[in-house]
Amino acid sequence: MTQTLILLFHPNIAKSKANAALQAAAHTIPGAQVVDMQARYPSGHIDMHTDGEAEARALLEADRIVLQFPIQWYSTPALLKAWQDAVLTRMYYIHAAAEGDRLAGTPLMIAATAGNTPSAYGPGGANHFTIDELMAPLKATALRCGLPWHSPHLVFRADRLKPAELAAAQESYVRALNDFIATTTILDQTAA
Ligand SMILES: Cc1cc2nc3c(=O)[nH]c(=O)nc-3n(C[C@H](O)[C@H](O)[C@H](O)COP(=O)(O)O)c2cc1C
Q1: Which atom of ligand 1 is nearest to the CA of 15?
Q2: Which of 31, 18, 120 is nearest to 74 (CA)?
Q3: 144: which residues sit within 8 A by CB, 6+ positions away?
Q4: Which sequence spans correspond to the domains of the chain?
Q5: The predicted structure's pLDDT at residue 93
Q6: DSSP structure class, residue 94
Q7: 83: helix, coil or strand?
Q8: Is the pTM for the entire model greater than 0.90?
């Protein structure tokens, strides 16, 4: 079974509705491991050397990576930036040959929730920029790191979802994860 590593960056998952529901849905996917990064790093600090070594190992063991988070101030939560600064800097600038070069080729998918509506992020919308435009720093990171970009999974109006809409978002996330897995599974040609 191929491994899907889902790193969840939510400042307080105990107070979350959308990401908590998506996390529960992701747990049903065979081979998926969801890591609550805020619980792992409650202080918000990730040490590039000690923590970085374990994080790099986990990434290198994964067949594909998902970064799940709520959009905050048109960007990612601070811990996701801390993870990039510590783990990706370590892997691509300090241990490039042993780590970064080996991680290159691992597909990456973003799973984000937004409080605002799709139209607010549409052309002429209140937010002035599309989600795709706001994802540019993450896309640039993926390009720099050689991580093939998979179409993001987005949930809008995340604070206002009625129970049926939340259930639909869960189903949509499971479909998106299964699609990610199906399109990024490299068949082992040597297997019988
Ligand atoms: C500090 C903060 C900043 C936020 N900034 C945005 C934003 O820029 N755009 C947006 O659509 N929603 C924004 N939101 C709403 C969150 O995206 C929304 O509450 C979250 O996706 C809901 O998911 P949850 O139930 O898992 O917490 C913000 C929320 C907080 C707390």
Answers
A1: 27
A2: 120
A3: 92
A4: 4-183
A5: 98
A6: I
A7: helix
A8: yes
